[in-house]
Amino acid sequence: MGAVSRAELQAVRPGLVDAYDRALPRARAEILARLLVALAHEPLPGTAPDPMHAAGSATVVEPFQPAAAGLAYRLGGETITDPVVLVRRLGWPETFAGEIGNSVANLALAYADPPPATSRPLLDTAPDLATVEQLVADGHPLHPCCRTRTAMSVADVLAYAPEHRPTLRLTRLRVPAGRWYGTGEPVLLAHPWQARRLREAYPWLRADGETGPVRPLMSLRTVDTGAGHVKTAVDVQMTSAVRTVSPAALHNGPVLSALLGKLTAGLPLTVLAESGAGAVLVGGEPSRHLAHLHREAPRVGPGETVVPLGALAAADPYDGRPLLLHAATDPYAWWRDLCHLLFPPLLALLHRGVALEAHGQNTLVVLDRGRPTRIVYRDFGGVRVSPARLRAAGHDVPRLDGDLPTDDPHELRTKLAAAVLGTVAPQLVAVLTTAGADPAKLWATTAEAIATVATADARALLTGPLPRKATTAMRLAADPLADVWTYHDNPLAA
Questions:
Q1: Do residues 477 and 336 both lie within one domain?
Q2: Residues near 288 by Cβ (< 8 Å), separated by ≥ 6?
Q3: Separation between Cα atoms, residue 24 and residue 112, nearest integer Å
Q4: Structural domain tally of the chain?
Q5: Final residue in a domain of this structure, among 295, 323, 356
Q6: Amino acid 12: pLDDT
Q7: Which of 201, 254, 311, 432 is the most exposed place for a label (fewest CB within 10 A)?
Q8: Do 313 and 451 lie in a common domain?
Q9: How many CB atoms lie within 10 A of CB 335?
Q10: In the chain, what's the furthest Cα-to-Cα distance?
Q11: pLDDT tens column, 47-95
């Protein structure tokens, strides 16, 4: 955090300054570790020799592991502890150095402002979804821009970022007749950060009050209203993209909701439907900057808690240990339950024609007193749809906008595997390993669950390297939204 931003923290939350200063070395180490992992595994410009070996660390830097205290890296005789310095020494763009610095600052701010301690493990209290999601301080476990929020001030981050546990209200902006695209009333639900800018740029949008209280989920721009979820547009760079709502998403949401409702019939997988999307027409086209969509909220019964898989690695405010370790009192039985719930329906759905990008934010597990009972999926960004497979399964092929349709089996498998096997599973295995579980046994259980599905896709996932999204390479690419993959040894291979 630069001097100006630190001065702002002093002005808006002076009580956090000392905690921020203490947290800053840890935040630098975490982002530096992500960069070192990327240097070791991704196709990057200016790759330095031996990037996995770090000064002051007894072990190499491994993915999904907490960064060692005092982590540093030697490059050309210089010992580097600040990831911004490393980016500059490698000759990467100054814009990326700015994003890294912003990520460090916001991560330190998250560490400085933890949730209050609880008197018992959080999952014992059957918390609601927003409470669980707001525990996630670290963001994406591999992306060095995991906490980048460019264009947001310190005050904005404290007011709107989920890790600071805010409650806010969306702004209702009434849209003139003839300028509305959507099925509901011509009222745009705008995030308050976005609304201030929209009113200045589009003075013909009329203020129409506010919604009731809402709480941001893991994705800052998606909020829980209590009755459902609303995805809003927020023109802020977060991790890999500026978070708008594209015209393709407005069209595809209801179409994919209907399709997946049919394809998941009989599977222990619930897909949260999207509906009620709307956008303001600018130049005759729906604007991605002035749009929202509604999504169902997951339903839970007595004693049940729904948790994004990525949030299971978050620290429990009871004792600082990951939530997963309180749920998985028997790690092997718990992992078996999860794998047999998760992988067969995802592979069945892939065989029927849809590859879900099942990463830790949009794939959720319902826990009944800690035990996995079913899977919930949300958000259709990044999915791929095979027209040929849909036809073979006896389904009509809907019209979809964007790059969703593909019949390439490698592309379909990669989209699924890179998320659920490249990121989600190894993160959770790493957490269970910290409590003494044998990772070889956990991966054997994963392979066993996949092998129950007799498809070519399942067989392919059990052999050969596994993909993972190369997030740093994507940020440095000419087109940062184009998928770039890296590959690693397959722990499922016999």
A1: yes
A2: 233, 244, 245, 246, 247, 279
A3: 9
A4: 3
A5: 295
A6: 95
A7: 201
A8: yes
A9: 24
A10: 65
A11: 655 555 566 554 568 899 999 888 999 988 899 999 999 999 999 999 9
